Structure formats: structure tokens, C-alpha cells
Amino acid sequence: MSTESWWTAEDVANVEKDLARHPRARLWGYTSPAEMAHWVFADPALPALGELAAPSMGPLGADLDEPARSSWALAGWYIRMTVPKPVETDGKLWFLNQLRVRGRSLLRVTLGRLETLWLFEDGDGINFHLDKAALDAAFDAGVIDEDAWDARVTKHDHDPHATLRGEKAGYVCGTIDDALWALRQPPVLAAARLVNAMSLAVGGFTFDRLHRPERLARAWSAAQVHFDSPQPGAGAGFDRPYRSPAVDPAALADTRAFDKEAYSAGCDEHDRLSRWLIDTLAATGTSVGTGLAEVPVDLAWQDADGRQYIAEVKSLVGVSPEDQLRLGLGQVLEYRHRLSLASRVVTPILLTSAPVDEVWRDICRNNGVTLIVDGDRFPGRPQ
Questions:
Q1: Cα–Cα distance between 202 and 169 in angstroms, integer?
Q2: What pLDDT is stored for residue 317 in this prediction?
Q3: CA–CA separation, 46 vs 55, rounded Å?
Q4: What's the number of CA atoms in the CB half-sphere (13 Å) around residue 359?
Q5: Which domains does the chain have, with CATH numbers?
Q6: Of the candidates 196, 148, 158, 159, which has an alpha carbon nearest to the alpha carbon of residue 36?
Q7: pLDDT tens by residue, 89-134
Q8: At a CB cut-off of 8 Å and minimum separation 6, what does 48 contact?
Q9: From residue 141, how far is each of 7, 14, 187, 301, 363 by CA, in Å?
């Protein structure tokens, strides 16, 4: 790999030579070393749809909750983006497995001798393998933000599964959003594709006994819902532009049993927080508005993959943080449920204005909500 950019024509030629060292690989019944070498470095766009006549899961997969839908979608996205000739080789050279581990459902993508992606259906702990030399070259070239990488991705201390190239390494992300952030980057995607292509070149196996074609169909369909299909009413990812609230403390009824000035200060803080998120995303080309499918969410937007986000904004100025967090969490969970009834898959966020007890991050995470404190990095921000 070159250090002048994250890849050159020479890199493509070297990968082709590495793949061609295994002339008897079953993979070459479906493609060629030259095609695979160019595919490794190809533009990270989703392949054309229609390769798989996947049965519908219903509007959103009625038997799946939100974390499970997101996990299956990530598996489908990963398969379509990083597995060589996924439809033709499904069950022949690779397969998607689902098994129970300590009472939890585990999704696992296995290519040849290597498990290249595995995650629990509840979205916890996304593990994947990358070609270490390719990734190191990208870091050397400065095309990956190392600080952001260190904040989102952890390398396995001990990864005993080695490829014949001897350059594979295992990585783990704590959330699906972090995994997507990492794998969407062209050099990381190339490192994943390289590991997978080499795994199949080294040796493919027949998985007839374990293979279940409906698993690929489910993952593929989930990925289409999350990343491809226009959702009802989809457009900019919100109903209308955001406008600052107009609050006149003098107009509030005297019978209201609260401090009018404190209420006004809270509204101002709510607006400041909303503007911070809107301006931060606007700087990277993402528009943020309010409302979604007539559900009164505070803020709504879509990321570069079309993934839909909603945010409930809660000011903690002059009020009980616990009460506000309980209220905000309840609201964003209600909105997520109402939107699911309208066939809208959303990622919910609770945005607050001040540091809170760390237990609230765990509470939100356990409910599939990301808690963001003013100034944090937040999901859905294009990198």
C-alpha cells in the first residue's frame, strides 16, 4: 500500500498478485483475481439492487424490535459491501449464521475459515476483521482521523485467527453507529474487502448443513429498509424547518405554578442547544429540521446513508436533571414507537445541556437511545 495516498495502481496490482497465488480457489469460479483487486479499492457505493429476490419482512420486520432491525441491517449492509459476489457464493463459500450464546442471539458472517463480522442481535459489541497493512497505510497517509478512530474503535488485544497474509487484526465497536462510521470510510472498507477476498482465495467451504438462505434475505431486506428504500414521506428527513420559539414571560398566566423567568431561560437554553446541533450538522452539509411524519419531534435529520435520526432536546437550566431526563427519555421512546407505526425506522437521541450522572448514559443505552451532552460527538454527523 502506498503512503502518498491511501491507494495507487501499484496497490491494485499487488493485491491481484496476492490473490493469484491461489489459482485453485473456488472463488475463481465466480470472479477473477483482477476483478477482485479492482473491487477492493472501488468506490464505496452500494451495489445495484435486484441481485437477490429477497422475501419481504413486512413493513419493518414485525418480529424484530428496533435494536434487532438495526443489527440485521448492519449485517446486510456489511455483506453487500464487503463480501465478494455475495448472492452467487452464499452458502457455497460463506454464510450468515444465527445462534444462541448465553441466551442471546448472535449474528455471524463467516467466509472460508474466518469469522469476519459478528454482533449480538441487541446491537451490543460489533466485531470485525480488517487487513492490518492496508489500515496502517491509511493511518500513515493521514486519511483517517486517529482521534475519532480511538474514540469509536478498539483493537482486540489478542486475535489468534491469522490469514495466510498474516496481516489481519480484529476490531470492536460499542455501537452500530460507530461501526458504520468506521466501515463507511473508503480505506477501512478496502481493508475489510481485502480480508474477505483473501479469506475466500485461501479456501472456501461448503456450508450446506448450516446455511439458511432466509437469513441473507432478512439481512438484505433490513439493509434496504435502513439504507436504500425511500421511506413514506421521506425527503430532507424532517417535516419543516426549525424556528426559534417565541416566549414572552409576561404572557404566561399568573396562575402557572412555576418561575416565569426560569421557564424563559430554559426555553432559551433549549433553543441554543437546538441551534448548536443544527449549525454543527449544517457545516457538514446535513440539514436539520423539526417534526417527522407529523410526530412532534424536536429535531430530525438524515445522515449520508439516509439513516433517520430524531432528537429530543432537554434543557437542565434551573430544573431537576433527573425529572428532565425521565421526561425526555419517555418522550423520545414514545416518538420512536409512533414513527415505527408509520413505517419509519429512526435512531433516537436525547440531547441535554449539562453533564449528568453517568448512570443515565447506561439507562438510555439500555433503551436503545443515545444520550448526548452539549459538546459531545454525536451519531449521524457526517465525518
A1: 17
A2: 78
A3: 20
A4: 4
A5: 9-228 (no CATH), 240-373 (3.40.1350.10)
A6: 196
A7: 888 888 898 888 888 889 999 887 788 999 998 877 899 999 988 8
A8: none
A9: 9, 18, 10, 32, 39
